[in-house]
């Protein structure tokens, strides 16, 4: 391999890492803001609005690119990918609904901790089912990131206890772990189209459930907030995540994406004036080593 080709590959890897962290940054806003939105919106409706915001938002982005002739030619989806598309949509209906119900039944410390099980689920599924090669260094990195996330999640030992809410959040993490691997199988296709299908398919599915369960109530203002949050925290985040997966793979992308809890804490510190604790400092060091 020539030096020029090596430099090109390294630049592509670094850019993909940047995209994975940017995806985490955008998603870092979702959990604390979703917690506030649940005051006015039902879990099913909120899950629907988040994905509809992503789907319609990215559809507009796609149309702008097409009309301005700036859209790159991407591989089209075929019937061969249909099982992965359907699985992705189903899991994207299931996971956020489980998370929203879990958030309403457990502490934020529990939710943050158990959400990070997605890293383990993604890696194990990638290894066992999809035969993705995961090196020793990568396993160490995943382990360190998970340990750091655990440290960050604990405000005190009494804040952690398994409950129905905890199990629901854990179920969401496992669902997203499987969904990440399905999405990985689609990552060579048009990422914008994938996000549009994911958003609209999952959004309509969750909205249908909310309708049949009579859970469509909520103020117009909160509905708009949820759609905007969905566009950035789900739409743009998923788009960057899928693009990063093309180069990094499912397991490695999920490891960088695990910076989301730290980003959430930093945002809370900056905008809410919360102090950085000693545990956060230790966890941040472990995260840096793991990354």
Brief summary:
The protein has helices spanning 3-27, 30-37, 43-67, 82-103, 108-115, 117-128, 136-153, 164-186, 191-212, 220-248, 250-257, 260-272, 278-290.
Describe the structure.
The structure is a single chain. This protein has helices at 3-27, 30-37, 43-67, 82-103, 108-115, 117-128, 136-153, 164-186, 191-212, 220-248, 250-257, 260-272, 278-290. With 291 residues, the chain is an all-alpha fold. The protein has one domain (42-70, 78-290). α2 (30-37) runs antiparallel to α10, α3 (43-67) crosses α4 (82-103) and α4 packs across α9 (191-212). The mean pLDDT is 81.
Q: How would a crystallographer describe the biggest sheet? A: none
- Structural category: mainly alpha
Number of DSSP helical runs: 13
Gross geometry = globular
Evaluate the radius of gyration: 19 Å
Number of structural units classed as domains: 1
From the N-terminal CA to the C-terminal CA, the straight-line distance is 26 Å
SSE order, as H and E? HHHHHHHHHHHHH
Pick out the low-confidence regions.
none
- Average pLDDT confidence is 81
Percentage of residues assigned to helices: over 70%
């Amino acid at each position: 391999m020539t030096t020029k080709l090596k430099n090109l590959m390294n630049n592509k890897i670094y850019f993909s890492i940047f995209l994975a962290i940017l995806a985490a940054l955008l998603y870092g806003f979702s959990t604390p803001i979703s917690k506030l939105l649940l005051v006015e919106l039902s879990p099913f409706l909120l899950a629907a609005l988040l994905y509809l915001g992503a789907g319609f938002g990215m559809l507009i982005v796609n149309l702008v690119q097409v009309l301005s002739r700036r859209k790159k030619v991407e591989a089209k989806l075929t019937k061969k990918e249909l099982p992965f598309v359907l699985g992705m949509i189903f899991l994207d209906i299931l996971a956020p609904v489980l998370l929203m119900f879990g958030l309403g039944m457990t502490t934020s410390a529990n939710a943050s901790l158990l959400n990070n099980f997605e890293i383990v689920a993604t890696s194990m599924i990638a290894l066992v089912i999809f035969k993705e090669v995961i090196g020793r260094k990568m396993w160490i990195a995943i382990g360190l990131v998970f340990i750091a996330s655990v440290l960050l999640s604990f405000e005190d030992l009494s804040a952690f206890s398994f409950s129905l809410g905890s199990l629901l959040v854990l179920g969401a993490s496992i669902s997203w772990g499987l969904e990440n691997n399905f999405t990985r199988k689609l990552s060579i296709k048009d990422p914008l189209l994938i996000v549009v299908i994911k958003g609209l398919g999952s959004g309509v599915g969750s909205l249908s459930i909310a309708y049949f369960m009579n859970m469509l109530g909520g103020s117009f203002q909160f509905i708009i907030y949820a759609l905007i949050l969905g566009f950035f925290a789900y739409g743009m985040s998923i788009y960057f995540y899928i693009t990063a997966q093309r180069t990094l793979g499912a397991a490695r992308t999920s490891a960088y994406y695990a910076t989301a809890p730290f980003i959430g804490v930093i945002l809370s510190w900056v905008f809410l004036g919360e102090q950085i604790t000693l545990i956060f400092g230790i966890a941040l060091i472990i995260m840096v080593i793991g990354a």
